[in-house]
Design brief:
The structure holds 2 protein chains of 2 kinds. Chain A has one domain. Chain A is 65% helix and 2% strand. Chain A is built from 8 helices and 2 strands; from the N terminus they run αααααααββα. A two-stranded antiparallel sheet of chain A has the order 1-2. Chain B is an alpha+beta fold. Helix content of chain B is 41%, strand content 19%. In chain B, the strands form 2 sheets. Chain B has a 5-stranded antiparallel beta sheet with strand order 1-2-3-4-5. In chain B, α1 crosses α3. At the A-B interface, α4 and α5 of A face α1 of B.
Chain lengths: 208, 203
């Protein structure tokens, strides 16, 4: 736990959302990116759950950082993350059963999302609770940003709808629906294009 | 103190006990709701397989279910008696899907020859692919399909094939789900047919 110079909040926000975006910079959490992005609504709920879990887990890890022995810190982190994920799962089961049925096993799989553990390890373990919360929150939002973009492209091209609403042109007979977009290969194509696009924009930014 | 080996053990024990107790408490608090949601999903599926009861409003589902459906213990099916007279069977089907079990209901006419509808109340198939078995586009295909005699009462065929009167089209990209669904539907229907031929319910 080496003391780091405190980062201003502004930087934490910019890092999470763009400069160190979990998806196109760190390429973390790709499994869920591929799995849940075929329909926008599922993606939004998944992203909300993940963002909340990341932020609160980071804060909890940070609160316990002075007492947690280094050699068992990962066990403690996993425990904390699993705890919040189960809570989210129970809330969905009790108050939004339809969505719980839609997402199926993916809510439970938030536990294995590398972004949460990554933020806990890289930031929350050596920073105070408030910045850790902000860091986790904006890493989660950075992840959500890209996922929602991917899911909009996939649902629109693959089903002709957005959030289940039929879109003009794409849901008419003029558009031959690309079924492959809602299938797993579509996720790979869209994700690759999205990373390419974001990195190109970033390069331009760096030059200017 | 923090670097002593026993500290790690004690610490982990305390942290685990703390978080687990909160979880147990939380699970207890939500258990009733979760169970009620499960029961409601089941009742909704039973109602959904008959066109006459499919449109019932959410708040009336339980009342209609209790009034019109009775369980037949010998065959495991639910008997639909809208005005005291047996008018159809709601046959539960259950089996392994691609990820976890799929549970659903098949509605059958009183002559046991035709399907009136199908609905699912539990499934964890891939969202957007296998999970589309719950959508009207897929379920609607089963309405008025015949139940064939013999080993495979119904069939789920690839979209390119021409259908017989006991077959429907599978979902593109959800081959595994459809293959398993075909098996579990046929098993459920055959089992029910068998228990019906050994007596059946009193009408």
């Amino acid at each position: 736990m080496s003391p780091q110079p405190a980062k201003p909040m502004k930087d934490l926000v910019a890092d999470g959302l763009w400069r160190d975006n979990p998806i196109f910079r760190q390429v973390l959490g790709i499994c869920s990116t591929l799995a849940v992005t075929n329909v926008v609504l599922n993606t939004v709920v998944m992203c909300t759950s993940l963002t909340l879990v990341t932020a609160i887990s980071c804060m909890t890890v940070s609160l316990l950082r002075h007492w947690t022995p280094r050699n068992i810190r990962m066990m403690v982190q996993t425990l904390i993350i699993a705890f919040y994920v189960i809570i989210v799962d129970l809330i969905l089961k009790a108050y939004w059963p339809e969505m719980s049925r839609n997402l199926g096993p993916y809510v439970g799989l938030i536990i294995t999302n590398c972004i949460i553990m990554g933020r806990c390890e890289a930031f929350a373990g050596s920073n105070p609770p408030a910045p850790s919360f902000v860091d986790g929150l904006f890493s989660g939002l950075g992840y959500s940003l890209i996922l929602v973009a991917i899911s909009v492209v996939r649902e629109l091209l693959g089903m002709g709808t957005i959030l289940g609403f039929a879109m003009p042109y794409f849901s008419s007979d003029l558009w031959d629906k690309w079924v492959i977009m809602v299938m797993p290969p579509g996720a790979f194509f869209t994700l690759a294009c999205m990373i390419w696009l974001c990195r190109s924009i970033k390069k331009k930014e760096a030059k200017s | 103190m923090k670097n002593k080996p026993f500290f790690a053990v004690v610490y982990m024990f305390i942290v685990t006990a703390f978080f687990s107790s909160i979880l147990i408490l939380f699970a207890q608090l939500t258990r009733e709701r979760v169970e009620a949601n499960k029961q409601l999903a089941f009742e909704k599926a039973v109602l959904a397989v008959f066109p006459e009861t499919a449109g019932v409003e959410k708040k009336n589902i339980h009342t209609v279910f209790v009034e019109q459906f009775t369980e037949d213990k010998t065959s495991g099916a639910w008997l639909w008696k809208p005005s005291g007279k047996l008018s159809g069977y709601a046959v539960p089907i259950e089996g392994k899907g691609f990820w976890a079990s799929i549970k659903g209901i098949v509605g059958v006419t009183i002559d046991r020859q035709t399907i009136t509808g199908i609905a699912f109340y539990e499934q964890s198939e891939t969202p957007g692919l296998g999970a589309r078995i719950v959508e009207p586009d897929f379920c609607g295909q089963f309405v008025d399909r015949k139940i064939a005699a013999g080993d495979s009462p119904i069939g789920i065929k690839p979209p390119s094939e021409t259908l017989k009167d006991n077959q429907v089209h599978a979902i593109t990209g959800a081959t595994q789900t459809c293959v398993r669904l075909e098996i579990l539907m046929n098993d459920g229907l055959k089992q029910w047919q068998q228990s019906m031929s050994n007596g059946g319910p009193q009408q």
